[in-house]
Amino acid sequence: MPGGRYDGRESFSNETDQLPGPFSNLTALQGSFAAKGLTSDEMVTLSGAHTIGRARCLFFSSRFSEMDSALAAKLRAQCGNDNNNVNQDDVTPDVLDKQYYQNVVDKKVLFTSDAVLNSTETITQVTENANMAGAWERKFEKAMETMGKIGVKTIGNQQGAEIRKVCWRVNS
């Protein structure tokens, strides 16, 4: 990511409504990404970030019947209640890699918003990302850089903002 840009000193929970939810269908996903100036290909590419992280069972427990049966059985056991959290990627949970796309094909994704990428409109991109070594990683870098330019504060609107010395924390 390019450095030297202004960033806010606070985050607000009410701004998260700009993100597509875990129950989003393909049309809603495409609309959310398009509203931010991102393409459908960038949407599929950025969705690959779900190869790492954890998810609360509440957001996918209604999908067990639609998932790979072995994964669904494992998740049912891990999701004793809807507040439990599980790995989003059961194969390589701590690695940012293209495994997510194979999981989409194999019906081993948690969220509806991931499962819908197995549609006729996006399956070609999903399959290419799953099978072409290095392709997704290069596309992900570019899409992250594009996404990082959305809503950037500039000299004229930097009130309450700063150029951070360390990107993940506010300056002291």
UniProtKB/TrEMBL annotation:
Heme b binds at H50. Residues 1-171 form the Plant heme peroxidase family profile domain. This is peroxidase. InterPro entries: Haem_peroxidase, Haem_peroxidase_sf, Peroxidase_pln, Peroxidases_heam-ligand_BS. Disulfide bonds join C57-C79. Belongs to the peroxidase family. Ascorbate peroxidase subfamily. Substrate binds at P20. Ca(2+) binds at T51, D89, T92, D97. Its cofactor is Ca(2+); heme b. Binds 2 calcium ions per subunit. Binds 1 heme b (iron(II)-protoporphyrin IX) group per subunit. Residues 1-12 have a biased composition (Basic and acidic residues). Keywords: Calcium, Disulfide bond, Glycoprotein, Heme, Hydrogen peroxide, Iron, Metal-binding, Oxidoreductase, Peroxidase. The keyword Transport does not apply. GO terms for biological process: hydrogen peroxide catabolic process; response to oxidative stress. It is an enzyme of class 1 (oxidoreductase). Its EC number is 1.11.1.7.
